[in-house]
Structures are given as structure tokens and as C-alpha cells.
Amino acid sequence: MLVTLTVQNLAIIDNISVDFSGGMTVLTGETGAGKSLIIDAIALLFGRRASTDMIRFGETKAVIEGVFSEVPPAARELLGAGEDDYLVLRREIHANGKSLCKINNEIVTLAQLATIADELGDIHTQFDTQGLFNRKNYLGFLDDREILTELEEYRRRLSTYKEADARYRELKDKAQSGARQLEFLKYQQAELAKAKISPEEEEELKERAAYLANFEEISNHVKEFSDLYKDGGALANVYQSIFHLEKLANFDKKYADYKKRLEDYYYGLEDLVEEISRAGKTLEFDEGELERINDRLGLYSDLKRKYKLSTAEIAALYDQICAEIDAIKNYDYHLETLEKERDAAREAVLETALAIREKRIAIARKLEANIKNNLEDLQLRNAVFKVEFNDIENVQFREDGIDEIDFLITFNPGEPLRPLAKVASGGEISRFMLALKALLFAKINLQTIVFDEIDVGISGAVAYSIAAKIKQISAGAQVLCVTHLSQVAAAADHHISVRKQVSGARTVTEITPLDHAGRVEEIAKMISNGEATPASKALAEELLRGKNVI
Questions:
Q1: Is the whole-model pTM more than 0.85?
Q2: Which residues 6+ apart lie within 8 Å of 260 measured at CB?
């Protein structure tokens, strides 16, 4: 839960630090005092986008820092963190347009901050009810962790099905033009089959052509090499060197080693000279061979120029052409094979989608009953609520399954069920959203829940119902609530007064935790339009004792 909130230079907030406790805490004060700014500060910690207009006039940056305790396991898992007692979120908004986010003093992205915040808390404002007017949001109210896991498998199967369907359609489209292409493909196939080209042969031909083109020079070098050793010439000098080393060995043993090494060189050289001489005698030049090689290389050049491909790519093209001819000739077989693959993939994705739909319907029926109970608690006893599912006779696979749902409701006896957005008044919508979120909060087990003026336009017995429902939610989570209703303020465990004061030439927001006497004074002012009278104080005392007196 949120333990401490520190805010610096945010609009009219100069520098405040406020400690929060568990249970239900209300923030009250006159309009414009800064109550919603405190909620805005928490929203910034929860990843809401910032604007430089939020920075206090004359300052270079705004800083918001929140310390959270009892960090949920899901948040720890996302952070890869250990069992630290506290989690510190920090947000800086700079006048140059930059925004800095930190978690436990480590810089993170805004998206990462928002992801962690999703596991910590939720902020519910009077404007959240707009989400009830968009049917695209409704599945999110049904899908639990089990369904979200199954949706991952559904999307994998959907991807497999789409790929199989694309292959089937591609072959079907190709087959329609296949007959026209077949003759041309056969011509290319015959041309390349006859050519029998390969990168390896081309390289060998180039090497052989280079050899033959330089045959005369090669022959001359071989002859000149052999002449060097003709009649024992150079070898005789080496043999004579061995004689001298033999004589020197009589005087120094190291010359015996030199003599042996030189003898090895001598016999090796003698063998090499003999081998090269024999090779030189077998050298032959076939002008016809060079011509045949050049003709073959010319074919390689012509094909590469014609197809605008390398030799390796032309060889691969031949295999591709053969496969295409085979596909056209055996179209029916291949199409049937792909059709079976596609149908099997469709069955797999439909199986998963129907399993998800079944779970959603079960959750929807429980939601209907629970919403009915919560609406009765909120003085909407005649309301009837139903989750309507789409007809799936003609199934359409979407990223979130095959289901489309609508929230249908009637608040008045005798009136038919109609889409929620078309029948509800503002007060009814606010109460419906509170009933819905009360269920969601219990399911997702958030630590901190913030309500910002969701009771606008509410009065009388309904106000007590709103207060009771918020109090009920606070039994399982920390609740922070901005309110103008004395009934809601009296239901709280803790009460904070928010006021604006003029200090020097500047307006600043002041935060004051209230004791019992302070709460009586504050609630009395809420009852009597800003002035605490003896009568309103008495009523405030009655409210704080839990009596419905207004």
C-alpha cells in the first residue's frame, strides 16, 4: 500500500509530504484546494503521461515520490526483486519536456513504471465511466488469469491457421494461372537442364582456361628450371658441398650434423628435379580444349545475363522451377494436402476459442448475479443486468477470441434490457461502475485503490450506500477517496483536510491529518455549506458514530 507521498512543485503544491495508513482515508476540502492534484500525483506515479504545464510556475521541475509497502508478489516478479520491505516509485517532470522515472532508484521507462503500477493499485475517477460506453472494453471485465493464459495458446493457434490458410489461398490462386505458366516453365526447365551448370564446374573451367591461356609461359619456366640442373649442374655444387662438410666433421662434430641435413636436402632436391623434368616432358597444349572451355564459359555468361542471377542462384532457380511444375501438374493433390492442414489448424483454434467462450459465459453469469447484489446495495434494487454474447454461427476469429459481448441493463421495472450506454443516467452509471469495480478489486487483489469524486451528483440514501460500498472495499485494500459527501467522509478510518493558503505572493496547498474534533468541524462544514454550526456539528457527531441522520 501507499505509505508516504511526497510532491514538489506540482501546480499549486509547493512541497508536501503526507503519510497514509491502511483502511479508508478521505481527502476533503474546498474546490480548487488541491485534492485532485494529490490524485494526479499518484496517477503520475502509476504511469500517466505528464505535461510541462503541471510544473509550478517559476520552477524547473516537478518531483513526485511514493513509498509502497506490502508489495504484491506479481510486482516483485516483474521487478525481479527480493523481499525488500518497501518499493519506491519516483517521477520527475522537467520544464524542457523530459520525464524521468525511477523504481528503487533504478531508471525505468514510463511503460515499465505503468506495468508495475498495474500490480499496485487503481485510480477510479468520475470520468472512468466513459469506458462503459465502449464495447471493446467489456471482455476485459470477464477475462481472468486462466483465460489470459488460454488466449496466448489461442493466438499461437490462430497464427498457425492464418499461415496455413495463406498457403492454401496462394496455391489456389497460382493454379488458376498455372496452365498459362506451365509451357514457359517447361522451356526454362529444359534450357537449364541441358546446360547442367554448377558453381563448382564454372570455377574449375576458369582455372583450366587460365592455365591454357598461359601455357607458353608455363612451358618456358619448366624448361628453364630443368636447364639449371642439366648435366648435374647445380646439384654437383651441392654434392661438392657435402664433400667439404665431411672433411670438416673430422675437426668439429657439428659439421657432421650439417652434412647430414644437406644430404637430406640434396636427395630431396634430386627427386624434385627429376619429377619436374618428367612433368615438363608431358606438357601438351590442346587449342581445341581451350576453345571448348571458352564456349562453355560463354554459356555461363549468357545464362547469367539472361536471368540476371549468379550461377548459384540459377542452379537454385532450376530446383524452384521443377517444384513449381510439380505443383501445377499435381495441383489437386497439393491443394488437398494444404486444405487438410488448414482445416486441422482451424479446428485447433476453434477448439481453444470455444473453451475460452465457455469460461467467459460462466464468469458472465456469476458477474450478472454479483452485479445485481452490488446494485441493490447501491439503492438500485430494480436493476436487471445481463451480459449478452454474440451469435457464433458464422465464426470470426479475432485476436481476443470469437466473442463479442454487450452489457444490457434496465434500471426501471417494465422497461426492456438495452445497451448500458443508452439507458443510464450519470448517477446510475457511477453506481454501476462502482458495483463493477468492487468485484474487480476483490478478484485482482490490488493494494491501493483511489476514488476521485465518484460521488458527484449523489445525495440522500444513495450517499450512504456509496459510503458503505467504499468502506466494504477498504476491508480488503487501502482506499484513498476524494469526496464532497459528508456520509462518505464520516465512513472513513482516516481523514485528511486539503486547503489552499496564500503565502507571500504565492498560493500553496496545505495538508492536515484530522483528529476527531477536526473531523467533526470538517464534516459539519460539509453539511452546512461551509459554516460549522452547533446543529451541523451535532449531525457530524451522529454521522461519525455511524448513524444515518441526514
A1: no
A2: none
